[in-house]
């Protein structure tokens, strides 16, 4: 997918100027060459089919209860000794903030006169419609935060321990988010031109 770079000093004109290119907000931390490959895929109108081919399924973890069980199964396997998890839910109010794929919070509550901290994981509602691989990636990411606060080497090592394909999946998930934002809503899709 190599493409020749635009000559230095050239100016966007005509149609290109009227259609500013999306900034690929979900891919900001990846190298420019990789971002260019993604842009080429988008320009060729092939990102959707590429994703569809690679990730054809939607997972079956469709309720909060199933999500909790799914998460606990992974936690018991890899992080049995870390802090208890009081709640795992899909959150319809959670917007995908750039570079934050989910949230993990410690909720402090007063119980019987004592302040108790509980860990909760919230997964953005839109991941209900995701491929099973992407759901696992998100849950692995948030579980790793039970032990590692920052996105540092130790954090990613733990992610890769739980899901060996973690890095590829995080990249592909960001492609999926990019594609979702570019795709017109089904109802708004234009009819075939005559
Ligand atoms: Zn994180």
Architecture overview:
- It is a single chain.
- The chain is an alpha+beta fold.
- The chain has a domain at 64-179: Metalloproteases ("zincins"), catalytic domain (Zincin-like, 2-Layer Sandwich).
- Helix content is 41%, strand content 14%.
- It has a three-stranded mixed β-sheet with strand order 1-3-2.
- A hairpin with a 2-residue loop joins strand 2 and strand 3.
- The longest helix has 17 residues, at 166-182.
- It is globular, with a radius of gyration of 20 Å.
- Residues 1-19 have low confidence and may be disordered.
- The chain binds zinc ion.
- Residues 141, 145, 151 line the site of zinc ion.
Pick out its properties.
single chain, 194 residues, alpha+beta, Zincin-like, three-stranded mixed beta sheet, 7 helices, 41% helix, binds zinc ion, UTP_pyrophosphatase-like, YgjP-like metallopeptidase domain-containing protein, YgjP-like_metallopeptidase
Q: Kindly provide the name of the CATH class of the domain at 64-179.
A: Alpha Beta
Helix and strand string, N-terminal first? HHHHEEEHHH
Strand order of the largest sheet: 1-3-2
Give the strand tally: 3
Please identify, by name, the CATH architecture of the domain at 64-179.
Answer: 2-Layer Sandwich
Radius of gyration: 20 Å
First CA to last CA: what distance?
Answer: 32 Å
Shape: globular
Assembly context of the chains: single chain
How much of the sequence lies in strands comes to 5-15%
């Amino acid at each position: 997918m190599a493409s020749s770079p635009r000559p230095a000093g050239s100016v966007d004109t005509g149609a290109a100027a009227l259609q500013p290119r999306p900034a690929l907000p979900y891919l900001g931390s990846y190298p420019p060459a990789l971002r260019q490959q993604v842009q080429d895929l988008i320009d060729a109108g092939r990102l959707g089919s590429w994703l569809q081919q690679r990730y054809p399924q939607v997972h079956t973890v469709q309720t909060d209860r199933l999500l909790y069980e799914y998460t606990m199964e992974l936690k018991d396997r890899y992080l049995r000794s870390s802090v208890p998890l009081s709640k795992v839910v899909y959150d319809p109010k959670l917007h995908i903030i750039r570079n934050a794929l989910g949230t993990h919070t410690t909720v402090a509550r007063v119980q019987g006169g004592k302040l108790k901290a509980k860990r909760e994981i919230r997964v953005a509602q839109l991941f209900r419609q995701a491929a099973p691989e992407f759901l696992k990636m998100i849950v692995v990411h948030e579980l790793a935060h039970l032990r590692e606060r920052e996105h540092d080497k130790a954090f990613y090592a733990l992610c890769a321990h739980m899901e060996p394909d973690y890095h590829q999946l995080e990249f592909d998930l960001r492609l999926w988010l990019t594609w979702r934002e570019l795709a017109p809503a089904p109802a708004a899709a234009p009819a075939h031109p005559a």
